[in-house]
Amino acid sequence: MKRGLVIGKFLPIHAGHIALIKFAAQQCDELIVSMSYTPHDVIDPSLRFSWIIELFTKYTSIKPAMVLDNFDDESLPLPERTKVWADFIKRTYPPIDILFSSEEYGDPFAHHLGALHQSFDPERKSLPVSASRIRQNPFQYWDFIPSVVRPYFVKKICFYGPESTGKSTMAKKMATIYQTEFVPEVARELIASNVFSLEDIVKIGHAHVERIEEKAKSANRILFCDTDAITTQIYSQHYLHAVPEVLYTLEKAVHYDLYFLFDIDVAWVADDLRDLGHQREAMLAVFREALEKRNIPYVFVSGTYEVREAMIRTVVDQLLR
């Protein structure tokens, strides 16, 4: 049996890695894809490994493995450094027949392994991308990022503030303009009035986080979210005079890259879930204070709907650069 090896940190795995791995798998009976990691990696190792598993789950000859990188010594010259690698590989895996790589370490590493070296697109002409470039500017290299990885890099934008300030309409409109997804105010799908329980509030909190995770999978670079867990906490406190502890846990489960706080300087539109028209200034103060006590920066959005749209688009365009 001919056994091959591909190594990498896969921070993150991208189209170039995938092409290398598929090429290597065609050249051998079994291919070990060895992902090394350290506790200080910028992307969680378990998450990175789950991407590899998902990408190659249908390829029975590809054997992903995850190893702690506690053996490398970057201070060594490449010949000595790759000997350290080879010694580790020999201790960890069955004998390797072919090493596949796109890197300059390929020849000395293969030599120390006692294996052949098959180079693949070393100049990266067919797929001009690298993991470091993706980390620095994911949107520039979006087409090289596998769909399973993209949710990690999706920027989440929260439209936040009191009732009847245009958040829902703006979320839908921005999603259309930027050809992406939006997360609606999930509470409106679960309750029909402002008579609800703490159990209802918890369901709303969980449903909102689940919807964000779902929509992030198909979002195009950015995801617009109508409200957040802080909003659910505010209304829980207002109507029920209590906030379930789980809502604070759910708040930490989602990181928003940008907050827009919507002003109340637009006409009030009543409906079955809006009954605080007489407390608009007070509620705006509550929403603002909730962000400021968490040291969350925000963009304050005011003016006509046309002015708001222009303001939001300017900020979002800067985020996408």
From TrEMBL:
SUPFAM superfamilies: Nucleotidylyl transferase (SSF52374), P-loop containing nucleoside triphosphate hydrolases (SSF52540). Keywords: Nucleotidyltransferase, Transferase. It comes from the Bacteria. The keyword Nucleotidyltransferase applies. GO terms for molecular function: nucleotidyltransferase activity. It holds the Pfam family CTP_transf_like. Residues 6-36 form the Cytidyltransferase-like domain. This is Nicotinamide-nucleotide adenylyltransferase, NadR type. It comes from Ohtaekwangia koreensis.
